[in-house]
Model the fold of this input.
Amino acid sequence: MEELTVIAAVANAAGQQVRMGCWLHGKRSSGKIQFLQLRDGTGYIQGVLVKSETTPETWEAAQKLTQESSLYVTGTVREEPRSPSGYELTVTGIEIIQLTEDYPITPKEHGVDFLMDRRHLWLRTPKQRAVLIVRAEIIRSIQQFFDERGFTLVDPPLLTPSSCEGTTNLFHTKYFDEDAYLTQSGQLYMEAAAMALGKVYSFGPTFRAEKSKTRRHLIEFWMIEPEMAFVDHEQSLRVQEQFVSYVVDNVLARCRPELDTLGRNVAKLEAIKGPFPRITYDEAIATLQREGHEIAWGEDFGAPHETALAAAYDRPLFITNYPTAIKAFYMKPDPTRPEVVLCADMIAPEGYGEIIGGSQRIDDPELLAERFEEHELSVEAYQWYLDLRKYGTVPHSGFGLGLERTVAWICGLDHVRETIPFPRTLYRLYP
Ligand code: 4AD
Ligand code: MG
Done:
């Protein structure tokens, strides 16, 4: 096939004749002039046909085009200061690939279920496209952040013999004659990797059979899990605030057009600079009680609590030192106060909730053995994990960032279902 020019690169072809592969996004006509809104995935450009200056075949082909018809278009790229991209195309030829009939997603308003059933087509709209571009930039800058700081990317397994974050939300499957579970978190394996490579991070899908139908929960979501040997809780918090500020900065620098398409208030993102505010779990409980919430020390926060606490700040908030009893078995107790652990959740501003959960890990083999008993965990299933404390244990810390919640926050979306191409939610496995 001959080389096509892509819309994203028309600036290099000003004044030249080009050929492009496109879909018709929309069109307008004034009788003597037709305006075609063309898209090719890389961007949008307006194609202009003046009846008196176009061949009858080309004029008629343009008239036939329907929404989402596919075509090859030839024309001359013209600078046009009034167009958002700065360019227009004077159309000289149209080769229709397919005329689309009854395209279901029209410019009128559709309900979310209607759109989710047609997610494979919904992705073509400017807003959904912008989200996927921002998501890709977030992924790219996450990898760049860790790669530039001496972390090695390590891939933990997805099929596991046991659980990491509690046993209630596990997806069960058969592994030949054995039972297996889809991973909820790669953390325990990343601890092994940190003992081999020092600083590591994973980036992969995780699965939680959570019966939660909220705007923050997916069944399948992507997590970034750094794990760092010889790094304590305090140092880990500093990595987290640098990390999140870095990602936001990159999106601001590279995705302005997409943030504009999404109508995102960028001033809110520009405020995201470290250090991030911190409050302890104790302070959080006291604040909530003062504000009239019914919550007692020892209870976990729900989404409304997180939103209320974060509302006082214009940047992400760390809530530190949760009660040992409500956190995972592997978290290291505060040496001065063993009823709380050296952990923190990072709560995004503007009501987006927890985006990071992290902690220093228990490095003492005896304490870990005690926790295994309390949590009734199988020593046999986790022998390999206990080995890490037997053969050269060291202080270490890590955390997990939920990609989709981060994308929802940065894009300003009110639901995580739009942050991933094909969301898996409580009642949706199609398309
Ligand atoms: O707080 P979580 O459960 O932490 C862990 O899994 C640790 N093992 C991470 C670690 O220390 N290596 O999950 C981490 C993050 C949450 O803060 C949230 O952003 C996201 O994962 N998350 C979800 N995102 C979408 N849908 C769900 N059902 C999620 N559950 C957690
Ligand atoms: Mg958590």
